[in-house]
Amino acid sequence: MADFMEEAYRRIRSSVSVSSAEPASTLPKLEQLDAARTSLPKLSDGNYLNGTGQQKTLDHLLNDIAPALNGQNLSGRYHGFVTGSTLPIAEVADNIVSAYDQNVQVHLPTQTIATEVEDAALKMLIGLLELGDVADWEGRTFTTGATASNILGLACGREAVIQARLPKGADGVGELGLLGACAQAGIRDVQVLTSMGHSSLSKAASIVGLGRKSVKELPHSDHEPWRLDLHAVERELKRQGIASIIALSAGEVNTGRFALTGVEEMQKLRDLADRYGAWIHVDGAFGIFARALPVDPEFSRLKAYAAGLELADSITVDGHKLLNVPYDNGIFFTRKASVLTSVCQNPNAAYLSGGASDIQSPLNVGIENSRRFRALPVYAVLLSEGREGIAHMLARMVRLARGIAQAIKDSPDYVLLASEAASIEDTHIIVLFRAKDERLNDVLVETINSGGLWYVGGTKWKGQKAVRVAVASWRVNVEEDLAAVKQYLASIAQQHKSG
Ligand SMILES: *Cc1c(COP(=O)(O)O)cnc(C)c1O
Fold first, then answer.
1. Which CATH number is associated with domain 98-380?
2. Which residues lie below 8 Å from residue 382, measured CB to CB, with a gap of 6+?
3. Which residues line ligand 1 (CB under 6 A)?
4. Model-level pTM?
């Protein structure tokens, strides 16, 4: 068995090794996808559950399945979605997680160090993101990603804004459910106020019983729809019989831009929320990492936009995006542990409690009970890279994104979008653009992606097709990647003109 494992790990490593001479492909070839598809077990084959043994299975996984996966981890030029890659130390830590398969659901300090490592990682993240004193973020946990963190954010917000309108000491949503608690509190509706909220916010609203229609877009203007209109927020907060959660896009997933201009607006919003009993949730999946960029004038605008986020009631952070740990990994912070336990507490299970400790049993502060030791890769990255190493990794991502934005601006063939009145220094890790020629624009995303050397996302901006570049990998090499991207763009435009 030991031999099999060693050989398997060796083969895995060799299958993902990337040579510096030849950049990894961003996409598998169609033949590789076809071959993988054909290799899948056929339910019509009566023998399909007979078991082929581990050696044959490993061969199948490495020879058929692996070549048909995309290059999001292996190529620094996979700029679709916001995927991130995996730092080597994070992959190593993740293999330790699998090898030990530690369940991290109950705080068992005489039996395993896992919950304490998890808490150490969460506290280090509070430090990295400069959110203030760890005591101000008593509610903290690892999740499966920003979607799960947004679910917790809306669940906590719902719990708190309704509880605030109930008599002191009364049961809240966690006990009574949304309908019962709202009836007792005299609340007709709970609304989620946002600007270009991520689609997962609407999904979260559905899951926690508020409904997708509870999410209300309050854009500051046509030009800057990612910005939240604070006057509209105040108008909404004044409505009688309606409780509100404010969800800040920080940053917004199509443009990377921030809902607020900085600490002054955030303080205003905080005052409004306090006056009207609203909850502020920050969806900072990738944007909050602007706070961890190097202290340098180059990044001061971004840092200003992200300043003040520490005044929120709850915060979503993604691990598997800019922090470059493997899927699936997210983080959730909220101020009071009691709000999180009101939502997530397992009842009547004294054996599940963490005992006297400031470390909560994860099962009472998160969605899952049994769960993976997903804190370990984050812990490893924070230890290995430190504040400075992470700052430099993030800076490389921003510099490449800005280089691409500038190249688009300078190009006769393409237009940089969402950039009216914006400076290049407003660019974080996302660049949105389109081709000037409509016919090229129609096929631009497919043309870029079919080359297998660069991968971008397709989206819409103001009703028209657009290309979205999201730079999120530690593998970024600013000079080389920028030169390559410029060349792809120029040659695509050239071929279109001559073709
Ligand atoms: C990616 C993203 C999400 C969803 O995150 P998952 O990690 O995919 O669950 C939510 N909000 C924002 C702003 C995002 O960028």
1. 3.40.640.10
2. 121, 124, 125, 128, 390
3. 82, 145-147, 150, 198, 200, 253, 283, 285-286, 318, 330
4. 0.97
